[in-house]
Amino acid sequence: MTEATRDADQTQDGRPLEAVAESRHPESALDSWLRSMARPEPAPGGRLPSHSPTCAGCGKDNAASLALEVDATEAGVSAVHRFDHRQEGAPGITHGGLVAAAFDDLFGFLLYRVGELAVTRTLTVEYLRPVLLGVDYQFTATVRERAGRRLHVEASATQVDGPRVATAHATFVVVDVEHFAQGSTRLPE
Prior knowledge:
5 helices, single chain, alpha+beta, Thiol Ester Dehydrase, Chain A, about 30% strand
């Protein structure tokens, strides 16, 4: 077990992630998500598991999901993705907010590589060209720098066999598992 894997299995104060989740939220979606985030780092080239079945970026059980499929690489993570008519903004062009969502979710996969739980603090996307529907794009992301609890990450999207269409950079902040327990409280219907 690597140090990153051991640390990914514990809260910042050293308690096991699964024990904290089970004591607060037995059999919850949070438990499943925490277990998936605590998986050991795959070898470069390996497919990474979705953040959760209902994740808006990569969840297979979410009809509105982008359904990103992300692989570990030597330098970070990558995905080939094709936006479809459900993500349309202007005719034939992907909505910019959904391009940003793809970058944000891709950055979330870097957390598997780093072995930390973290959240987006800032996200900046530079749109260089229209991101067209029905075209394959190669998304890649890396950790540029780590400074204390802050992870500075960067990414690009390039049309397969074509030009770069967008770049992004973000700051993620490492948080304790309790941060995510806030989302398990349901609002009254």
